[in-house]
TrEMBL record:
It is a multi-pass membrane protein. This is MMPL family transporter. It holds the Pfam family MMPL. It comes from Kitasatospora saccharophila. Belongs to the resistance-nodulation-cell division (RND) (TC 2.A.6) family. MmpL subfamily. It is found in: Cell membrane. It comes from the Bacteria. The chain crosses the membrane at residues 194-213, 218-237, 249-273, 294-317, 323-349, 381-401, 546-565, 577-595, 615-638, 659-678, 690-711.
Length: 737
């Protein structure tokens, strides 16, 4: 097909003065830069080595929410909190009502009450043989405890208490569970998965890099940049832990994205250096031109990825903010390694990374990606429609998404805390440890009659097993018994507390609906409703409420950045829509594989039938940033060819031929690093691994290789269009070469 160049587009790319000066400085001071880089790496290794022990797993709390205020009132007025540690006491013979078992249970509770970090305790035997604390067959009963302090402090105490109270004798068997114990083990398992992933990823990535480069020196430099990013990020995260909690999962993100982006950017820089040397430039001039051209693209890419991850700061949750810290640090250190340290190394030993003579490139027109792109553009409508149909089909399961709340099933089946929680789930009709805590403060006259009527009314709500307060216990609207021996814990001065114990079936169903029923029930005084179910409900609501803002913070700045880079409105619009389209595949597979359980057998996990909402949101921010990363790489090369005077079709084919081998190599390596986490033991990490690996591969192979050239061919000259006012704005503040 004969094409013509769009008029007025031919111009020679201008050098970037700042990057030109940086390139020359790196060449002139290469030894000093490399020495400084080596020292930085050693310091990062020393500080980063201890980062894992400084990280924690934040609770599912929504600061400022009703549940959070209820918990604060519970602490302030009663010196109590929702139970976060459980001892499951199993009678070796008989039932938990047998005198010997009851005596053992009381002694166990008394011993636990004196343990470090434990503020309050209760038990089946202290609450007048409460049925909510005993199994239906009466062979098991619970001792509950509240460990005060932050998640880090309580889980550090649990690390000591859990093995101490796991015991068995001729009378009882004691096992440790509870929500904080579950998520303490999640954090510990995530740390193990981190170390296991390191052992698999590094050798595998090195092998792949050798296949791509066919030079040990190039592979070594690339791995070095990735390791620098990982270690520097861990060191910086350790610094953040001095001021706030940082999730253990942030280290997992640091490993996979540090290696991934470090390798991604290094591939682009080394490839550009090889091109410049092949064009006849000497080593030092080639380094300067590489920093000018590839360095600019890497900076653009880094900013787009960082924008996507910075949006996580819009959530008031430490768990998601931890990923924002990790993501921004990863991007910054990967960009620094690729744009500063790597060019200095190339200036010193760059000729060792050049292709072997036998691997000298052929003409661009002979490349397989060039020919593929030409074939796609010969039938753009058919090619683009086919890809869109495939993506929508694979993403269709997401229409059936059901958001739910996490529980012990995020752990492997043999985890001790999951075993305990599963026994409670299977053998108990209710779960007092997950009671909704109804707290009223400043009550002028907390009369027994009003409180008793309120408790009886709450006990009639669907999903409520029992309500305990200072006047007694209530079920199905009737008094089940008088005040228990420890009834004083429900009333102090002008404050009143009621514990609404849910049925096990209610916790397995629509928990937010249960919380809403309790909150909207008529009360004789103003109340706040907290407890673990309310915490998770408010956490989920906070996530979903902030989602539109987060989406805007991701989509709008990246759109503007691409406009400043290209001067086009269509290219940013096309990038936004195609990136969102590619993410539908990731979300579809999450629902099909994890929510609906089709991957449960191959990957070894238990499906809960719902999706915990924070993980898809996190994956959206990461995957969208990486998609824009690849968009920047491709569009930068296409625009470079277009600015040299090539028509749209030639610019697209040449740009893809020059960038696609790098993008597919980078996507394959990054996909591998993500996929390694599918072999881990925590469901959250499996979801991240499978979903993000699929997202980057789909983006590289379908979006960039097929959909992008098809759309650009259909758009023709309109690819570079913008209204006159925006063209003038771009000429003034644009970031074009």
């Amino acid at each position: 097909m004969t094409t013509t160049r769009e008029p007025g587009t031919a111009r020679s790319p201008r050098p970037a003065p700042g990057l030109n000066r940086l390139g020359r400085l790196l060449v002139e001071r290469r030894r000093a830069v490399l020495i400084a880089g080596t020292l930085l790496l050693l310091v990062a290794a020393a500080l980063g080595a201890g980062a894992q022990n400084a990280l924690s797993l934040s609770r599912f709390e929504a600061p400022g929410s009703a549940s959070h205020r209820a918990e604060q009132a519970l602490h302030a007025e009663f010196g109590q909190g929702s139970p976060n540690m459980v001892l499951l006491v199993t009678a070796e013979h008989g039932t938990v009502d047998d005198p010997a078992v009851a005596e053992a249970g009381r002694k166990l509770a008394a011993e636990l009450a004196t343990a470090p970090g434990v503020r309050t305790t209760s038990s089946y035997w202290a609450q007048g043989d409460s049925p909510g604390l005993a199994s239906t067959d009466r062979t098991k009963a619970l001792v509950t405890a509240w460990l005060d302090g932050t998640a880090t402090e309580s889980r550090a105490a649990l690390a000591e208490l859990s093995p101490r109270f796991t015991r068995q004798d001729a009378t009882v068997k004691v096992e440790v569970g509870g929500q904080d114990e579950v998520f303490r083990q999640v954090g510990a398992q995530a740390r193990k998965d981190f170390l296991g992933a390191e052992a698999i990823v590094l050798p595998a990535v090195l092998l792949l890099l050798l296949l791509v480069y066919r030079r040990w020196s190039a592979a070594g430099l690339t791995i070095g940049v990735g390791l620098f990013s990982v270690l520097a990020t861990l060191a910086l995260l350790r610094g953040v832990t001095l001021f706030t909690e940082v999730s253990t999962f942030a280290a997992n993100l640091a490993l996979v994205m540090g290696l991934g982006l470090g390798i991604d950017y290094s591939l682009f820089v080394i490839s550009r250096f090889r091109e410049e040397r092949a064009a006849g430039h000497d080593r030092h001039r080639a380094v300067v031109r590489t920093v000018e051209r590839a360095g600019r693209t890497v900076l653009f890419s880094g900013v787009t990825v960082a924008i996507s991850l910075l949006a996580l700061f819009a959530f008031p949750f430490g768990f998601l903010r931890s990923f924002a810290y990790a993501g921004v640090f990863v991007v910054g250190t990967a960009v620094f390694g690729a744009v500063v340290l790597l060019p200095a190394a190339l200036a010193a030993v760059g000729d060792r990374v050049l292709r072997p003579a036998a691997a000298a490139p052929a003409r661009v027109e002979d490349g397989r990606w060039y020919r593929l792109t030409r074939r796609v553009m010969a039938r753009p409508l058919a090619s683009g429609t086919l890809v869109v149909a495939v993506l929508l089909l694979l993403g269709a399961p997401f229409l059936g998404v059901r958001f739910g709340l996490p529980d012990e099933r995020v752990l492997p089946a043999d985890a001790t805390s999951r075993v305990v929680q599963q026994q409670v789930r299977d053998g108990f009709g209710a779960r007092e440890t997950d009671a909704l805590q109804v707290v009223a403060t400043g009550v002028t006259d907390p009369g027994p009659a009003d409180t008793a009527a309120y408790a009886a009314r709450l006990s009639t709500l669907p999903g409520v097993f029992q309500v305990d307060t200072f006047t007694g216990s209530y079920a199905h609207g009737l008094a089940r018994g008088g005040p228990s021996p420890d009834a004083a814990r429900f009333r102090t001065g002008s404050a009143v507390r009621l514990a609404v114990i849910p049925e096990e079936a209610a916790l397995a169903g629509d928990v937010p609906a249960l919380v809403d029923r309790v909150r909207t029930a008529q009360a004789p005084y103003p109340v706040l409703v907290g407890g673990f179910p309310a915490d998770l409900t408010d956490f989920r609501s906070g996530l979903l409420d902030a989602l539109p803002l987060v989406a805007a913070l991701v989509l709008v700045p990246t759109f503007v950045l691409l406009f400043l880079m290209t001067g086009s409105l269509l290219i940013p619009a096309k990038a936004t829509l195609s990136n969102l389209l590619s993410l539908t595949v990731m979300f579809g597979v999450l629902v099909w594989g994890f929510q609906d359980g089709h991957l449960a057998g191959p990957l070894g996990f238990t499906s809960t039938g719902t999706m915990e909402p924070s993980i898809p949101i996190l994956m959206f921010c990461i995957a969208y940033g990486l998609s824009m990363d690849y968009e920047v790489f491709v569009v930068a090369r296409i625009k470079e060819e277009h600015d040299r005077g090539a028509d749209t079709e030639s610019a697209v084919a040449t740009g893809i031929q020059r960038s696609a081998p790098l993008i597919t190599s980078a996507a394959g390596i990054l996909g591998l690093t993500f996929a390694v986490y599918a072999t881990g033991s925590v469901v959250f990490l499996k979801e991240l691994g499978v979903g993000l690996a699929l997202a980057v591969l789909v983006d590289a192979l379908l979006i960039r290789a097929v959909l992008l050239p098809a759309v650009m061919r259909l758009a023709g000259p309109a690819n570079w269009w913008a209204p006159a006012p925006l063209r003038r704005l771009h000429r003034r503040i644009g970031l074009a070469d």
